[in-house]
Amino acid sequence: MARHSHYSWNATALRTWLETERATRKNTLKLSHQLNVPMPILVNWLTPQSSLFVNITLEQLQVISNYRGWRLDQTIRWLSICPAHLEELRADSEKAPC
Questions:
Q1: Mean of pLDDT over the chain
Q2: Taking burial as the number of CB atoms within 10 A of a residue's CB, which of 70, 79, 91, 97 is the most buried?
Q3: Burial class of residue 78 (count of CB atoms within 10 Å of its CB; 0-12, 13-18, 19+)
């Protein structure tokens, strides 16, 4: 489970995009499956709140990048993930069990 980050990032951009994707598909569960993101995480991302309370992992950033047909660095810039936050995500990813 990802720990809460103390870095601010553009969770609003993610939420707005997800709301558009969800409206296109008319189904949150289908979007969850297409993104390969568990429903509770998707619901958390869709809930308006401070980005300090919205977790995201490096793997999830890669999934979003793949879904959008973007490179990872494009998604990182789009979501305003700062370098220190990215380093924390990389460190967490390396600690994650296989």
A1: 88
A2: 79
A3: middle
List strand residue ranges (DSSP E) for the chain, in order.
Answer: none
Compute the residue count for the chain: 98
- Per DSSP, 18 falls in state H
What is the C-alpha separation between 38 and 44, in angstroms, rounded?
10
**What does the CA dihedral 36, 18, 50, 87 come to, rounded to 10 degrees?**
50
Q: What is the pTM of this model?
A: 0.85
Residue 70: pLDDT band (50, 70, 90) is very high
37: Cβ contacts below 8 Å, ≥ 6 apart: 45, 60, 63
- Domains of the chain are 11-95 (1.10.260)
- Predicted local distance difference test score (pLDDT) of residue 50: 64
> In which residue are the tokens 């959008």 written?
68
